[in-house]
């Protein structure tokens, strides 16, 4: 079962980030009232990182027992640790570094200076998911590129079609850097809540195509079992 898509429109990118941050923190609070831990998949990108910065500044963040929260990633660039292209470094600076979040709760995807190949890094992340016993992500956030990609699943790229794994290696990404690790579509669709976060007129064409069900676009295929939200600004839905 998957949840139907709902679209929430905000005035601009700043409003998208601020509202999504509040929504994220409330979802974590709600989750921890009914279970012992919350597993959250973070995203990068301009609006994604702005969302994390807004979350760090919110008074709601102080109401959360962060020792019960686990942070994961939808994708990562297979470059050395500390490289500015890595999503995890941006998230660390925007949010994670300001929280009392235990290091063992931060599940970073492997870097190129720690693994001999991207295949090894993807396998290690899949093993980490399995060993953590995550039945389903509680919240999984995704940015969306102007080509309709989410995580590192690109239209027409072999990774979009991969099944039967939690995480996969990505070669020859249409967007640099070319080598990455990504959650699979199956793993994404295992989430309880899937949120696609997008803003700006440059996304308008592809937002319209995705919301009208063009499954050549990975963004059109993502769903959550309990909730599927597109959190967008007015410019991004101008052509829907």
TrEMBL record:
Pfam assignment, any one: Glucosamine_iso
* Biological process according to GO: carbohydrate metabolic process; pentose-phosphate shunt
Which SUPFAM superfamilies has this protein been placed in?
A: NagB/RpiA/CoA transferase-like
Catalyzed reactions = 6-phospho-D-glucono-1,5-lactone + H2O = 6-phospho-D-gluconate + H(+)
> Per the database record, which ranges form the Glucosamine/galactosamine-6-phosphate isomerase domain?
12-230
The record's GO molecular-function terms, alphabetically, read:
6-phosphogluconolactonase activity
Entry's InterPro entries? 6-phosphogluconolactonase_DevB, 6PGL, Glc/Gal-6P_isomerase, NagB/RpiA_transferase-like
Q: In which pathway does it act?
A: Carbohydrate degradation; pentose phosphate pathway; D-ribulose 5-phosphate from D-glucose 6-phosphate (oxidative stage): step 2/3
Q: Which keywords fit this entry according to its UniProt record?
A: Hydrolase
Its EC number(s): 3.1.1.31
What the protein does? Hydrolysis of 6-phosphogluconolactone to 6-phosphogluconate.
Assigned protein family: Belongs to the glucosamine/galactosamine-6-phosphate isomerase family. 6-phosphogluconolactonase subfamily.
Record-given protein name: 6-phosphogluconolactonase
Organism in which the protein naturally occurs: Demequina lignilytica
């Amino acid at each position: 079962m998957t949840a139907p898509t709902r679209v929430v429109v905000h005035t601009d990118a700043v409003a998208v980030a601020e509202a999504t941050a509040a929504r994220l923190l409330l979802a974590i609070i709600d989750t921890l009232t009914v279970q012992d831990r919350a597993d959250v998949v973070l995203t990068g990108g301009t609006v994604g990182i702005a969302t994390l910065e807004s979350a760090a500044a919110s008074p709601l963040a102080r109401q959360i027992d962060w020792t019960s929260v686990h942070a994961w990633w939808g994708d990562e660039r297979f470059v050395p640790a500390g490289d500015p292209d890595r999503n995890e470094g941006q998230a660390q600076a925007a949010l994670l570094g300001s929280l009392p979040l235990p290091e063992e709760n931060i599940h970073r995807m492997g870097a190129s200076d720690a693994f001999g190949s991207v295949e090894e890094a993807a396998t290690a992340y899949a093993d980490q998911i399995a060993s953590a016993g995550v039945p389903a992500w509680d919240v999984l956030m995704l940015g969306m590129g102007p080509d309709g990609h989410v995580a590192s699943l690109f239209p027409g790229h072999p990774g979009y079609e991969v099944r039967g794994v939690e995480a996969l290696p990505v070669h020859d990404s249409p967007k640099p850097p070319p080598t990455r690790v990504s959650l699979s579509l199956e793993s994404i669709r295992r989430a309880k809540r899937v949120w696609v976060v997008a803003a700006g007129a440059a996304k308008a064409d592809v937002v319209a195509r995705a919301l009208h069900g063009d499954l050549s676009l990975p963004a059109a295929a993502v769903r959550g079992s309990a909730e599927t939200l597109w959190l967008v600004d007015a410019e991004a839905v101008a052509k829907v």
